[in-house]
Amino acid sequence: MLYLTIFICFISSVLLTPLVKKLAIKIGATDKPNYRKVHQKIMPRLGGLAIFISFIIGMLILSPEQKYTVPIIIGSLIIVITGVLDDMKELSAKVKLLGQIIAALVVVLWGGLHIDIINLPFGGALSLGIFSIPFTIIWIIAITNAINLIDGLDGLAAGVSSIALISICGMAILQGNLGIAIMAAIVLASTLGFLLYNFHPAKIFMGDTGALFLGFIISVLSLLGFKSLTFISLIIPVIILGVPISDTFFAIIRRIVNKQPIGAPDKSHLHHCLLRIGFSHRQVVLIIYALAAMFGLAAFIFTMATMWGSFIFIAVMLIAIELFVESIGLIGKDYKPLIKFIRNRS
Question: Where would you find the membrane-spanning parts of this chain (predicted)?
Answer without folding.
Answer: 6-25, 46-62, 68-85, 97-115, 121-143, 155-174, 180-197, 204-225, 231-253, 284-305, 311-331
